Amino acid sequence: MIVDRSYFRETSQESIHGDTHYALQIDHYIHKLSKHGRVELVIEYTQRDVEPHDLYFHVPESTNLNDLFIKQELSEFLSMLN
Fold first, then answer.
1. How confident is the model at residue 64 (pLDDT cuts 50, 70, 90)?
2. Is residue 4 helix, strand or coil?
3. What is the 3-state secondary structure of 8-65?
């Protein structure tokens, strides 16, 4: 997938999991189709992963998922991933 870096941001988060309490750093790579797009494709990696740990779409909580523009953005993302 070719990514326009102007609509890309990277975040990092640390958390502690399980009974053994091991620390895990998760890097989030967040992609948008346009500067004002509401749908974000989030790809998560951990320090140990070569391939993505998790991949999902994120929209603001107040977004109506039945909105035609949201459906078009999702379709556009999916067509790029295919």
1. very high
2. coil
3. EEEEEEEEEECCCCEEEEEEEEEEECCCCCCCEEEEEEECCCCCCCEEEEECCCCCCC
